[in-house]
## 1
Amino acid sequence: MSIFNTSETDIATFFLIGIPGLESANIWVSIPICLMHIVAIMGNCTILFFIKMEPSLHEPMYYFLSMLAVSDLGLSFSSLPTMLRIFLFNAPGISPNACIAQEFFIHGFSAMESSVLLIMSFDRFIAICNPLRYASILTSTRVIKIGLVFSLKNVLLILPFPFTLKHLRYCKKNLLSHSYCLHQDVMKLACSDNKINVIYGLFVALTGILDITCIFMSYMLILKAVLGIASQNERLKVLNTCVSHIIAVLIFYVPIISLSVIYRFAKYSSPMVKILMADVFLLVPPLMNPVIYCVKNQQIRNLILMKLCQKYS
């Protein structure tokens, strides 16, 4: 217990945790976690490869999909090092500087993924509600500018996190709640006033709520436009173009919302539930997004099948 009950001197190491009660089975837990990371990385790299190499995919929708793949790769690579250390090598210790750097990248790529899902909802809105002007509105230059603006916005949004955490003093507690570092988790360990972190963390959370609100409004407008189509077959055909994006939105936001509800209304629930829900948030979107878009998108699916047929013919 001595490593968790520290004195008033500044602590030099934080300790992450795996899955409570399954410490003896860490090596077995590492197998599915490693497989999920490998599949996620290979899947997103495959999408980026085909979008780059295939001229027919040089369209706004696929450029936005490539941004989503980059965000997913960022999330995978940000969480992978500490998860491997804990589950594969049983090494839960991490320096405060490394922990703060990890939380910056995790929150940064999470914010980027939220922004990309928002952009993709606008893309679907323009494609369905104003199809004749779609190509003139979303030109390649404009798509690049949109990507750069949102990337800069997210960097500036998350950039204060490491600086505010660095100004806190950590002298009593050093046990974190997950197998990776998060801002809200690290700031709770501080023995100095963390009011600024709480307020700014709330502001960042509100930007995420704004993203999902705008996505919801986009789909309300899309639904209104679809209901104006006379043919039922045409309605289904139009809605089918949104299915992949809707699933991606649900996969990303449902774990976040569920985790927030658990922390707010079920404070005394099992720590296992909170840990697993947080792990789902980081592991599942990067894993499932490539699968969803490869299965639902005919162009990408046909290209992959064609490459596989050429390889084995």
## 2
Amino acid sequence: MFGALNRFISRLDSDGPSQSSRDGHGACGFQVLRNKNSDIPIEPWYDFIIGINGRQVDDPDPNLFATEIRNCAGSNVALTIWSAKGQRVRTLQIPVPTPSPTLGLTLQWTPLSLTEDVWHILDVIPDSPADVAGLLPYGDYIVGTPEGSVHGEAGLSELVEDYLSRTLRLYVYNHEYAVTRLVTITPSRSWGGNGALGCVLGFGALHRLPVPLTEPPAGPGETLFETARFSNEESRPLSSHLKSYPSGSSLHQTTSNQSSDLLVPATLTSPPPPPPMASTPAGPPRTGRKARKPVSPNSAFDEYFKEGEKKSKEEDFTPASKNVPPPPPKMGGPRPTKSPAPEAQEEEAAA
């Protein structure tokens, strides 16, 4: 996945203008190979001089550059520096001495793309040649070798194949400590794992040299972030209301000392209480009043169920007594006749 993404980014770089040309700088510059002047903050190999006194350096002739430096004797010369660490541009004001108008720099006309040939150490397998050589994952970058120039993604693998079972020297830059060291490694196929180095490498636009860690980490007990403050706000000491008091001091003393720093809410006035209602004169006690029976909490439910039971009986035609006429017959049957009373039946029998 990373290889395809790197090829896509490389195709975009080749089709369109390069980053340096979009920024107004050329694709080449004077690479600093050696810096003999410790007062000049220029780092060899990583820094390129791409401009002088506000003009772009587009001529590889070193004599023209040296002439421009001599013309600034007794004053400052403005150098535009492009750094391979983070691909950033900065400007330096460097004083040029009058007796010997030189800067003490060894320069070489080099394309800026030379710094793209960097291999990032992503992982190191234990007991591998890379582990024995002391390579560190994530923080180390292979930037070159004194054995010769290495170009392209396959350049390092071809160099390793040429030095199988032999000592190979590599320039390794560590991002966490900002140091470049010379590492000696012996590539081998018989160390017991995959690869001749025993490490995972990253190459391309996603693995170029990052910006150096210029800010030191916070020490033990220090805060990482400072309290946010507006630009028009006056600076005042933090935790001004947190003061140390001697033992035995009361809380009242502490709060009285903090009263100037804390916000005091406004006094809220409550409305006056309403006037009492006029009471009617008490009359004589009423007599002959029946005492109320205590109402059970389930009385409402009892009345509700009794009312429902009464309605149910009315709808179901429940007879209230036995002297009721019989129900009507089914359709198509004989019409029922009224049975004679028992006294009439006795008279007929006697006749």
## 3
Amino acid sequence: MAVTPLLRICQFSAFSIAVSANLLLLYLIKMRAGTSFGSYQVMMISFLMYAIVYAFIEILTMPVLHIHKSGVLFYVDSVLKFNPIIGELMSSLYCGSFALCISMLATHFIFRYVAVCKPHKLYHFDGNKIYKLFIPPTILFVIWTLSIYFNFGPNQVKKDFFRRVAWELYEEDIDKIAFMGPLYFTRMENGKRLFRFPDLFGAFISCTIMTICLTTCVVCAFKTYRKLNDLTIQMSERTRSLNKQLFWTLGLQTLLPCVTQYIPVGTMFFVPLFEFDLGRIGNLVGAACSLYPAMDPIIAIFMIDRFRNFVLRKEFHTVSKTSKVSAVNEERRSTIPDHII
């Protein structure tokens, strides 16, 4: 039995929505964000460009995942299926995108933390200095990608282990398709486990990167939330409101990949250790991951009021009534310049 058509429908639909929604968000940032977003525009644009690239990588990979005993079969089902060299490289890039996603989210939270809690240090991100924030995500992306490529790559042991499953359930010849995946151990004739340390090391690297980035997000989020709700801090209502919108947008944009990517992928890393043969259920991981780049820009569009009002055609009904009042109030009350937002 081949791959279910529902998985393909989900992947192609998510790809179409991802590209169109992210292009819409790009337009809104360039045309509607204004100067109040300051350097943070660079952060937002970088993230949506990542989402578009991720959508293309995902559609060029079209992964099929099958959890079989102590291993996970991950094979390419796109036009690159029968090109092992390029297919395996694309699979590694696809997996490395997880690290890039969560590490970029961590840098977003770091920027929000500095902007709200330590605005006097924002000079570190002035001008082209903002691009220094992209160095850690790039490094983590490279580490994760290389780890997947070298630790989870195919070999004869894995081919023999997944051969029957690939043929009987997916009608695929394991010797001809591009595949990879962790295989934590095999069983000897006496039943003892023979651990495969490169695969275990690869899983350890992935889990470590996820833990570091998620911890950074949680710590920065907690401190930023507490500061935004401290009414003793002098901050204009407009500035406080925009900061809260951006904060909650980031919060939901962190929750989304946790639900659609990291919890499923993290579970997929641990399940084979206990030899739970979940089989085709592993394809839910691929389906969930394909939803991420489609849903992420929708969060920003509808959480930030100036974007939401434009999309829902409410902008022109409110601007004329409030612009003059807000401008006067902003000039009188704001003690934090807009460019730090």
## 4
Amino acid sequence: MIPVLVCALLSLTVADSDLDKLYPELEHSRTIYVTENGPQLSVAAEQMKVVSRRGGNATLPCKIRMDQSMTPSRKMRIKWTKMTSDYLKEVDVFVAMDYHKRSYGRFHGRVHLQSSSPMDASLVINEITLEDYGKYKCEVIDGLEDGTVVVSLDLEGVVFPYYPRLGRYNLNFYDAERACRDQDAAVASFDQLYAAWRGKLDWCNAGWLSDGSVQYPITNPREPCGGKNMAPGVRTYGLRDKDKNHYDVFCFTSHYKGRFYYLIHPSKLTYDEAVQACQKDGAQIAKVGQMYAAWKLLGFDRCDAGWLADGSVRYPIANPRRRCSPTEAAVRFSGFPDKKHKLYGVYCFKGQH
């Protein structure tokens, strides 16, 4: 039973007869104020953001706090959901009630409760994927009592702008999702792009973000990019039509399991020859996201232009020097050359299973 504090304000009886004579139509009343004690169950997280990496593990904290007069019942339900990037929906991740436990969808077999104590509802996620990035909600329900807390899972990684051979501003939102996925990446969130902007990312072409907005980061204001009198920042076009509007995309990728390398070969290669050369070496031709991850997260540096899986030619420079990106560390882009006639080296990737 929930104790309550009841305060009653009663009309004074001393003056009842006088009031009756002066105001015969007056109805005497009793006013009761009811104040409940605070909630007897709540949940809390000792940290609101957890940082991990693709392929790693993470524990999202959620601790149950209960009034001393209560004890956990066998019908207490713990439910974890993941919010979609536009925050309009929640996707089921894990539910537990007594001995009954269930994980859902792509989380099946990868999540469980830490259960270090009866009051611990923390969620452990194994073999983290790029799609696991985002906000998670822990909800605990015990009878009429309930509590929730939201925890963010962030990933170490790198944001990169991308457009395919078709050229700039050719991707609707769903094309953009596929384009990033094909390059071993996912569409970046606003928070990821903002962090990249703070890390000096400057890009004058607008691209899709995971919430359906279109934005671009400017650290060096100039006329073709919103005006030179504008302050640096992430420029936005707002939410756009996911089917009809076409832009580039900002992709995000994280650590990988495997080896990214430049293939030493006696001669330069056409695109098809490059694909075959990687296969002959027991690998696959590398993807754009793998090059960016190797460059940003591992400091990969190679001043040799090479084919990548999407038919582009690029090279990663971690240490700027004369003739090799002299002004900044960057992944240099040489375009989408003719696959049949242009000759370059090739970057390969061997996955680790």
